[in-house]
Amino acid sequence: MSRRPLLAIVGAATVLLPLLVAHPFVLSLATQALIWALLASSWDLLSGYTGQISFGHAGFFALGAYTAAATSKHLGLSSWVGMALGAAVAALVGLGAGFPALRLRGHYLALVTLALAELIRLVAQNWLAVTGGPFGIYDFGSFTGLPASGLARARAAYLLVAVIAAVGLGLMLYVCHKTRAGRGFRAIREDEVLAESLGINTTAYKLLAFGVSSGLAGLAGTLYAYYIQLVSPTVASAATTSLVIGMAVFGGLGTIWGPALGAILLFAINEGLRFIGVVYNLIAVGLVIMVFVIFLPRGLAGLRLRREERTLRRDAAMTGAGGSGA
C-alpha cells in the first residue's frame, strides 16, 4: 500500500475514534498522543529534515505551555488567544536561538539548544509570581467553548486537538515537499557547504526551520497546557526532549509523518505498560527503541522506504535485462 492511502486510512480512523470509543480515559490517552505527535514532528522538521540537531525542544514546548497558561491565569485571556501567543512567543525565541545556528553545527549547536531549554526550566522554577515555581501553574482554565464535562467534553477536546495537530502536520508536509524551502532544508542536511556554493541561502532557510519548528513545538505546548490544565518545570526537562527524540527515531527521521506515527505508537506502548510499574515501563520503552535502532534504523518509515528501494532495484534489473535482450 502506498503512503497516501495509508495516511488516509490512519486519518479516517483518527477522526472516527471519538465516535467509536465511548470512554473518556481512552480519549484522554489519544488526545495526549496527538499532542506528542505534533511535538515529535516539529523536532523532526528541524533536526531530522534540516539536520540542525536540537537537544532543547522541550524548552520551546514549555515556553508555549507557560505563555498560554500565564496569559489565561493572570490576564484572563481565552484559550484561543493563549494558543496564538504561545506559538508566537516560542517561534520568536526559536528565531533568536537560530542565530547561533548560523555559526554552530553538530554537537556545538546541540549544547546551545540544551542550555536554552535548561535556562527556560530554571526561569520557570524560580519566577514564582508568574509561573508558580516548582509546583507549576494551574487553575487557568481549559479550552474555551467546549462542553462543561463528561464524554461530550472528552470528544470535543479530542477533535479540537486532532484538527490543530493535523493542520500543523499538513503545514510541515507542505513546506517540506511542495515549496523551495523544503529543497533548501534537504540540501542543508546533506551538505551545507555545497548548498552555499550552489547559491542556496542557507541562512534564511535555517532561520525559517528554527522558527517554524519552535513555533509548532510551542503550539503543542499550548495544547498540553489547556488539556492537562497544569504546567510544571518538568515539561522543560531533558527527559522530555529525550522522549521526543526517541519518538522521532522510532517513527523514522526526515519524514515528518513517521515521527507523528512513532509518537502515537510509542505513547500507547508507554501508557499500556504502566501496569508493570513506572520505572519498568520506561525500561521497556527504552528496549523497544533500542531494538528499532538496531534492526530498523530508519524507523517505521523505513518499512516503506525499503519497499521502494526493492521496487527500484527490481525495475532496474528488468530494464537491464530488457536492454541486454535487445
Would you kindly provide a written description of the structure presented here, covering whatever features stand out?
This protein is an all-alpha fold. The protein has a domain at 18-234. The protein contains 14 helices and two strands, in the order H-H-H-H-H-H-E-H-H-H-H-E-H-H-H-H. The chain has helices spanning 3-20, 24-49, 57-74, 79-101, 106-126, 128-131, 150-178, 180-190, 192-197, 202-228, 238-251, 257-272, 278-295, 301-325, and strands spanning 137-138, 230-231. A two-stranded antiparallel sheet has the order 1-2. Helix 3 runs parallel beside helix 5 (106-126) and helix 7 (150-178) crosses helix 8 (180-190). The two termini are 33 Å apart. Residues 308-313 and 315-326 have low confidence and may be disordered.
Low-pLDDT regions:
308-313, 315-326
Round the mean pLDDT to the nearest integer and report it. 83
Which class best fits the helix and strand makeup?
A: mainly alpha
**Strands of the biggest beta sheet: in what spatial order?**
1-2
Radius of gyration: 21 Å
What distance lies between the first and last C-alpha atoms, to the nearest angstrom?
33 Å
> How many strands appear in the DSSP assignment?
2
Tags for this model:
disordered C terminus; two-stranded antiparallel ribbon; 14 helices; 326 residues
